Backbone:
């Protein structure tokens, strides 16, 4: 059952000096407890406090009026006041967003300059694709790589379902790119199972578990690639901490906003943030230099571009073009440059019109 809260339930009683006008640093708020946001659902923020201690618990909070215009996302560290017991029917007040180490951003599409924040303070972006069913799309992966680069997250490409098909062409495409690629173990001819974690490769889970231990990772992937299977295997069937239950009271997260989960047997501070609402990254907010730099196999070529080069097919003396033609970006160079030009929107054909279908809470 969903409880109904009212912000007035959590108004903090004025302290003895309460009549004093609020100053910018609001001394009373120095007492705030720091929590980590694990999900946002219709204006309710779920934060974990006293992380890694016996008192670890999740607290539901609403944000203070002053923060009404500030996006707060999974991974954010926030200051909480009021009732932070985490007991049923209690509601804390979120009064501050702590400084972020980084922010994974996207725009709704490539023409919308308004950037939206997806996740804060993450270390890795794990891009999950299937070797087949559904067929992986390099356009999607390249976009995700740009978003990771622009936001300062380390990308990992995780390829599932290699038992169905060996993704050699994909490995070739990324051969010269600075990117960690993890594959599920190949080929015993299994068909994708209809339920459960059948077909999932244990070694892939173990590899991921090891790399991500102690870090905050964002998992990204289209429907059907095996992302839920992977998340379930990483977090264990029973989510011992019960944080998810705290979100909806039903043990299932119903909204499409990002949700942070703790992997089993991991160090304190290890979080995996699932992003069910995100199908792709609009990149309108990303500066051209970062688009180019994210293509680490091509980027050195741009050093020879004339100032203000558009890098289009017809751009005179484009260094990228010359670099690729000289074979310095390897066999996939031409294809990679074509992909970059799509993102730069300087390709001759219609650009990548992949539209955002995601829905994110703010
Ligand atoms: N053959 C094979 N099947 C797999 C593998 N990993 C997952 N599957 C199957 O692929 C199907 C889709 O997996 P899910 O984990 O539900 O995929 P998802 O990406 O979470 O998709 P949504 O739940 O739609 O978001 C399931 O039937 C899984 O059992 C794999 O490595 N090999
Ligand atoms: Zn150029």
Residues:
């Amino acid at each position: 059952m969903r409880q109904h809260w009212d912000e007035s339930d959590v108004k903090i009683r004025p302290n003895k000096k309460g009549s004093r006008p609020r100053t910018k640093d609001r001394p009373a708020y120095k007492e705030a407890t720091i929590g980590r946001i694990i999900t946002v659902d219709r204006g309710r923020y779920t934060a974990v406090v006293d992380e890694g201690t016996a008192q670890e618990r999740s607290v539901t909070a609403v944000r203070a009026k002053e923060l009404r215009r500030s996006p707060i996302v999974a991974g954010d560290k926030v200051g909480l006041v009021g009732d932070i017991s985490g007991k049923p029917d209690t509601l804390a007040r979120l009064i501050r967003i702590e400084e972020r180490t980084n922010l994974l951003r996207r725009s709704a599409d490539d023409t919308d300059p308004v950037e939206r924040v997806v996740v804060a303070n993450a270390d890795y972006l794990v891009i999950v694709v299937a070797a087949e069913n559904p067929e992986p799309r390099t356009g999607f992966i390249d976009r995700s790589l740009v978003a990771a680069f622009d936001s300062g997250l380390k990308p990992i490409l995780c390829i599932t379902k290699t038992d169905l098909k060996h993704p050699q062409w994909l490995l070739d495409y990324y051969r010269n790119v600075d990117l960690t690629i993890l594959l599920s173990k190949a080929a015993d001819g299994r068909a994708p199972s209809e339920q459960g974690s059948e077909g999932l490769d244990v070694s892939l889970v173990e590899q991921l578990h090891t790399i991500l231990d102690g870090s905050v990772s964002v998992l990204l992937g289209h429907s059907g690639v095996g992302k839920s299977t992977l998340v379930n295997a990483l977090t264990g069937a029973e989510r011992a901490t019960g944080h998810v239950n705290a979100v909806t009271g039903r043990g299932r997260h119903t909204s499409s906003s990002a949700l942070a989960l703790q992997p089993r047997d991991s160090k304190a501070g290890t979080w995996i943030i699932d992003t069910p609402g995100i199908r792709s990254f609009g990149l309108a907010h990303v500066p051209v230099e970062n688009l180019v730099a994210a293509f680490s196999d091509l980027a050195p070529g741009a050093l020879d571009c004339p100032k203000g080069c558009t890098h289009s097919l017809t751009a005179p003396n484009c260094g990228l073009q010359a670099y690729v033609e000289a074979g310095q970006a390897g066999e996939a160079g031409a294809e990679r440059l074509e992909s970059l030009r799509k993102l730069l929107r300087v390709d001759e054909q219609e650009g990548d019109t992949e539209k955002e279908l995601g829905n994110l809470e703010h």
In short: Residues 160-161, 163-164, 184, 190, 192-194, 198-201, 221, 223-229 surround guanosine-5'-triphosphate (ligand 1) (CB under 6 Å). Residues 86 and 190 are 45 Å apart (CA to CA).
